[in-house]
Amino acid sequence: MEEKYDHSTPKFGSQQMRDTFRLSDAYVMLNHGSYGFPPQPVLNKRNQLLEEQESHPFTWFRTNLMDYYMESVKIAANLINGDVEDTFILSNVTEGTNCILKSVMLKERENGEILMNTHSYEAVQNMLSEMETTYGTKTRCVEIRFPISDEQDVVDLYARQLDLYPNIKIAVIDHITSPTALKLPVEKIVEVCRERNVLTLIDGAHAPGQLDLDMKKIKADFYVGDLHKWYYTSRGCALLWISPKHRNKILPVVTDYCKDTMHHQYCYWGTRDTSSQLTLSTASKFYENIGGLETITGYNNKLVTWAQSMLCEALGTRPFDIPQSMKPPNMAMIYLPKSSKKKIGSYELTVHFIEKYNGITVGFTTIDGEVALRVAANVYNCKDDYFKLRDALLDYFNE
Fold first, then answer.
1. From CA 40, how far away is CA 305, in angstroms rounded?
2. Considering the chain, what percentage of its residues have pLDDT values greater than 90?
3. H-helix or E-strand containing 296?
4. What is the CA radius of gyration of the chain?
5. Is the peptide bond before 236 cis (omega within 30 degrees of 0)?
6. Beta bridge pairs of residue 225
7. Which SS3 state, helix, strand or coil, does residue 21 take?
């Protein structure tokens, strides 16, 4: 499919960049990591694919779809320094995590245990709870508390939990924790797991587009990562990487008619629309055209670090006490002021700020009994966005 692409580069933080992401003036988006935003060229590509699909569904599903799918697979494999044969495209990390855990634990039901941590994504927690009922597995948990003085402290927590529970078969390890934006030392944790013959699944939902990924360095058994968050594909598009030693052992959660190869099995899922998965080529070109990893994360990190400091000073509060090596480039955390007048929950607060404060969209979470704010930066953000957040927070706590 011939693709037309505009190679003009809007300035970071400019109105032109905001327009490229079609951001509504009714909102101040400071929570890009939750769902992501496809830029206009990617949306155009998705619409083009939908037009093609609906103009002749038979040709789409029987002739063209697999070629487009493999194009995305090749780009994803290159992005993570993985082999094409071991890389797959699917809808999101939750789907990939289901594929892996249910394939692995199907053979490990008797005395099978799965390890997560206290910052694991809620969908992972729910999945493991369901598997306790349906598969008879047990869930173990690494308790990560603040402050964290050194990343080795986290590695040691994993080692102790693995030694305490020798029936653990697989560990789910966040590359960047979703609610609390901690960049975990995954290579070191994978090593302590491998020493104990424990399989490793890296939940990299926030990693592609934020971190330089290399499967040959991480050496995990499995890796899943969303591409619609920080790599700008249409929603939903994610990658799944399976170590060659587990080749052909991890099955998709839905079995379809086409079983020629593992790529066919992951590509075909009835008549489900997977056009978002086929926007990776356009997203990759956009990502590189506006500067690539170093330039994009450099801008985002400078902005979000400044915003974190500014907000802490304005609110009289503090950031999470963690080492520099555990801070991701595009997200930062601060504690909210303690207030006996405010009985707040994290989800309710998120909705409240959208409804009352002109669409200000951020992520709130509760950790160790305190409410905290996850703030993100992306190339369409500027300092004025965070001043609006500051004014809203001050109004909220002073009203």
1. 28
2. 76
3. helix 292-315
4. 21
5. yes
6. 239
7. coil
Give me the residues paired with residue 173 across strands: 202
Nearest to 194 by CA among 213, 222, 219: 219
pLDDT tens digit string along 152-162? 999 999 999 99
From the list 282, 272, 283, the residue with the least C-alpha distance to 91 is 272
Answer for the pair 346, 366: CB distance below 8 angstroms, yes or no: yes
Rounded Cα gap, residues 31 and 34, in angstroms: 6
| Residue 362 identity | V
In angstroms, the CA 177 to CA 179 distance is 6
The torsion angle over the Cα atoms of residues 88, 93, 96 and 98, rounded to 10 degrees, is 180
The single-letter code of the amino acid at 93 is V
Residue position matching structure tokens 């957040």: 389
Diameter over CA atoms, the chain: 63
Where does residue 94 rank: exposed (0-12), middle (13-18), buried (19+ CB within 10 A)?
Answer: buried
C-beta atoms surrounding 253 within 10 Å: 12
Please count the CA atoms within 13 angstroms of the CA of 292 that sit on its side-chain side: 4
Task: Report yes or no: 95 and 238 within 8 Å, Cβ to Cβ.
Answer: yes
Q: What is the mean pLDDT of the chain?
A: 92
Query: CA–CA separation, 12 vs 174, rounded Å?
Result: 29
